[in-house]
Write a structure and sequence with these properties.
With 182 residues, this protein is mostly beta strands. It is 14% helix and 40% strand. The strands form three sheets. A seven-stranded antiparallel sheet has the order 3-2-6-9-10-5-4, with helices on both faces. Strands 1-11-12 form a three-stranded antiparallel sheet, with no helix packed on it.
Length: 182
């Protein structure tokens, strides 16, 4: 760490005195680049949803989390199914991200028409062809907070696809990270 003091230009910080409401939080969080995933559940609750509120939790036990709004169809589907998959999308899959984010799409099995996928061996959840990576998870815990539930899944299986460049979402747009040389 550099011990030299660095002065910050207060005008460059843009801190306002506005209260933090949902619109302000959405605006600020849009600056945080995230990966893009499609959560899926199989069986009688066959459903998919684009999500970027996803993270690893622990390596031992291997676990991940996703946050789903209470009003989302996925909330009920995931709770009922008890198992789910996380498809980590690649840059060529922006169309799939948009499709599974569209609240006006047809639901049920029809939402997968024209989408190549296979059933996960451990969950029965759709694993989307062309994904950068995928995880199959068993729902092991959940925490209700505000208008969302944080679902924690123990990873049962994981795999990588052929694509290297993950799809990102930042500033309300899809994009890709420029690979660092090295």
């Amino acid at each position: 760490m550099n011990s030299a003091s660095t002065e910050l230009d207060p005008a460059a910080l843009h801190f306002g005195s506005r209260p933090v409401d949902s619109a302000r939080l959405r605006e600020v969080m849009s600056r945080f680049a995230t990966g893009v995933t499609v959560l899926t559940v199989g069986g009688e609750h066959l459903h998919a949803m684009t999500a970027n509120a996803f993270s690893s939790v622990s390596l031992d036990p291997p676990s991940v989390l996703c946050s789903v709004g209470h009003s989302a169809v996925m909330h009920g589907a995931l709770t009922s199914a008890g198992r789910f998959a996380v498809n980590i999308l690649g840059v060529p899959q922006e169309g799939l991200a948009r499709h599974f984010a569209d609240k006006s799409r047809t639901l049920g099995a029809a939402q997968f028409d024209g989408v190549p996928w296979r059933s996960g061996e451990h969950t029965g959840a759709p694993l989307l062809a062309g994904s950068v990576a995928w995880l199959e998870c068993e729902l092991t815990d959940s925490h209700v907070f505000g208008d969302h539930t944080i679902f924690i899944g123990t990873v049962l299986a994981a795999g990588r696809g052929d694509h290297e460049d993950g799809l990102l979402f930042v500033n309300g747009r899809f994009g890709r990270a420029d690979a660092a040389a090295g």
